[in-house]
Amino acid sequence: MSDFFKNLDRKKIIVGTIYIIGAILVCIFLPQIMSFGNPEVKQTLKGAMKFFQIILFVFLLIMPVIVLQKGGGISNKNTKKYGDQGTATRGTIGELRDLCGNDGLSLSRNVRLSASKSYEHVAIIGPTGSGKSSAFFIPNLLDLDGKHSAVVTDPKGELHELTYRYLKSLNYNIIKLEPLNPKANEFYYNPLLIVEDITQIREVAQLILTNGNKAVEIATGSSSGGAEWINMSIPLLVAAFAYVKEFGNKKTINEAIDIILQNSLEEMERKFKKCPGAYRNFLIFKSSAGSEKTLSSIKSVLTTNVQLFLDDKIEEFTKSPIAVDDDGAKYIDMEKVFNPLILRQKPTVLFVCVPEIKSTYMMPLMSVFYSQVLDVCMNNKEGCPIFFLLDEFANIGVIPSIANITATARSRRIGIALGLQGVEQLRRNYGEENAADILNNLKAKVIFSGLTGDSAQYVSDLAGVTTVESISYSNNPNQGANGQDFLGNIISSVTGGGTSVSKSGVRRELLTPDEVRRMDPDDVLIIAHNKNPVFDKKNTYFTQRKYTLILEKFKPLNK
Ligand SMILES: Nc1ncnc2c1ncn2[C@@H]1O[C@H](COP(=O)(O)OP(=O)(O)O)[C@@H](O)[C@H]1O
Ligand SMILES: [Mg+2]
Fold this sequence. Notes:
It is built from 26 helices and 13 strands. With 559 residues, the protein is α/β, with parallel strands linked by helices. It folds into four domains: 69 residues, no CATH class; 224 residues, 3-Layer(aba) Sandwich (Rossmann fold), CATH 3.40.50; 140 residues, no CATH class; 45 residues, no CATH class.
């Protein structure tokens, strides 16, 4: 019941109060109203109507409840009447009650998930400018409860700028990472310092090469080497990573790439023999691509796909911070290395800022980054629960494990919200089947207006099929009116008989793709778990006092 009251917004409370006051006034003044000013009639009615006044008041109170419970369903009645054409119905916000709480992700103005339902993930689908940032990602940052950690994509650093003062007041530890502005960072991020075993090293190599390939494909419109070359290169890169992790001076990705580029097969073999993990992978590489000629082709594939790491800024961002101890010995200062475990250890909000125009270029690094953060959080269950607020998810690159992670993150108290411009983006990156898997695992879908094409079709399919009533009139000169119903009789008498009226149930999408596109820009459509599709108002932060008051209080001093 308390949830019910929490879900009521200010407007509804005002309208409800006015309605009740109106009902009381109508009942009290009923004799006056019904006597049309005639004092005698009024006196008679006053005596006789006490009981009727009470009945009317009770009726006026119950009526809105009945009407609201029925909801805006266009098909409830018709599906019952005509049976099986389709039974989809528009739901009411009240129907989502058992998904709601006050510690999870806010989907719309009146729907906030409970934390446990948020761990079953959310897809936010809407074209650019439809309000994904201002009506989902920003409000959810401002709704954080001080107990959940959060990882936030923040291309322009705007979300950080808007919210960090307030989040600090909730005792959050705030971290902002800007890979392309390494001087501004508090931490360095070196993937090779985070990996723990050869499987994880292989994952990093695979992510770098597939996303490097994808980035080149997007940038040039053509494939940079094909899957075969990439598969051949992976064991070599794994060998180099494993070697530098153990024996390297800097233990960086660049150091590993340099070893491959600067050494012949024989020289590499001599080095890698020192490190069993590296040597095993080198032998795998040699068995499939062991000649100097293939090596030179693979070097060229590698340089194309890993070129991001040769960028000065990225080299700086991914380096190992070296410090010198009292005895003059060098060591890696782990205090300055970003470790995703911090998200579990204390309530932390991590903002990751990569400008949108650089997102394709940055895919090899960002896919490794998010994948490692997700992995570390998945493997360490204890501590703070975490929300991943990943707006413009397609820009991060391809994270093949995301389907598995979304399927199993629930027990780890990890809630993932993915912002997408459309389902097309996801299909392009992951292929049709994986994209469908990922979308199925995001149990709540929040849809904004303006979607077209495959995305609009996807939402329409998701909303389901309903039955609507179709009335048809036909002229039959040989037959009199068949008297099917009142309307039919009237038409028959006007036309001189012979018109028959028939009603039938017709199958229709609850929402056609076109209706999805033309949704009211102020509305969101929520299709969550096993519930009916529900429309609600957008949770836009800059139009609501509960958010603007916070932002006003925590605005920068010089503004
Ligand atoms: N602080 C603000 N005040 C007024 N309008 C805004 C503000 N922030 C964004 N908007 C407008 O709200 C709309 C939605 O923007 P946004 O949330 O960034 O969309 P999306 O993230 O889906 O691309 C845009 O038309 C934008 O111009
Ligand atoms: Mg946005």
